[in-house]
Amino acid sequence: MQDRFVKSITQLPEPLANALVPLLGQDFAGHIDAQQLTELQAASGLSEKEMLLALLPIAATMAETPISHFNVGAIAKGKSGDIYMGANLELTGEALCHSVHAEQSAISHAWLSGEQQIVDIVVNYSPCGHCRQFMNELVQGQSIRIHLPGQDVHPLSHYLPYGFSPADLGVKEPLLTKQQIDIEIDSDDPMVIEALDQAGLSYAPYTQAHAAVVLETKDGRTYCGRYAENAAYNPSMMPMQMALSCLKRHNRDYDEINRAVLIESSKGVISLVGATMDALHAIAAVELEHIVVEPA
Ligand SMILES: [Zn+2]
Questions:
Q1: CMP/dCMP-type deaminase domain: from which residue to which, for each copy (predicted)?
Q2: Is residue 102 located within the same domain as residue 197?
Q3: Which terminal residue of the chain, N or C, has fewer Cβ atoms less than 10 Å from its own Cβ?
C-alpha cells in the first residue's frame, strides 16, 4: 500500500479497509473497476451508497492544498460501472483561478479514461456553484445523482434549478460525448503525438480552441489533460490543470516533471498559452513546448 493512504485507511470501516488494501499498490491512482467494486461491496457488507461515501477519505488523500489545507475528495461513477476518484488541487502562491475542484478532478479522471457519461457524483461537502455549473455541461448533466454524507440523493437539477446549459448556446453534444476533431502534425515525438491525440478529444465548442497538455516525468511516464470548456466560461477546466491533477492522483511530485507540451488548434479564437505557462512556471523549472496545429 502507498504510504499516503496509511492515515486515511484507518477512517474506513474495517471490512472495507481490509478488502481495499490490496488495491492500493504503487500504481493505484483512484480508479476502481466495476468488478473490483462488486467484490469490495460484498466484503464490506455495505450498500453501494454507503461504501462510496466510506471511500471518500481515500479520494481526499490525493488532494494538494497548500493554500486552503481543506481536502475535498470526490468519486465519479461512470455508466460503465467503474468509479474514478478525484481531489482538489491548488498551486502554491498562485491565483485561486488555477485551482481544481474535487468534482472536476474526478470527472476529468473518468473522461480521460474513456467514460461517456457520469451517473453518480459522491462528495464529502456540498458541491459549490462552480462545480454545479461544471457538471451541468456533462451528458445528461441534470440527471446526475449527487450523494452527500447525511443527505438524501438528489439529481443535479435539484442543486442547480433553472441552470444555464450548453443547449442555451446551441451546443447539442455536451461534455463527455465521444467526439474527435481531426488535427494532424508531422512528428515522430511520442509526447507530441500523444498531445495531438488528446487535443483531438478535447471539448471547446465555444472557442474552437481545442488543446491538450502532456507532462513527462523523468522516468518517461506521461500524464495528460484535455481542455474542457463550459457554457458559463469560468468553470472551464484548463488542460494544464487537468494534467497536474492527473499527476497528483498518480502520487508524482512536480519536481519530477521533465517536459511539458501544449498543443492547440490554430482555429481557436483564444489561446491557452499564457495561462498554461503561468501554471507550469508556478510548479516546475521547465519551459513549455508550445505547438499550434492546423485542423484538417
Ligand atoms: Zn467546487
A1: 47-167, 186-296
A2: no
A3: C
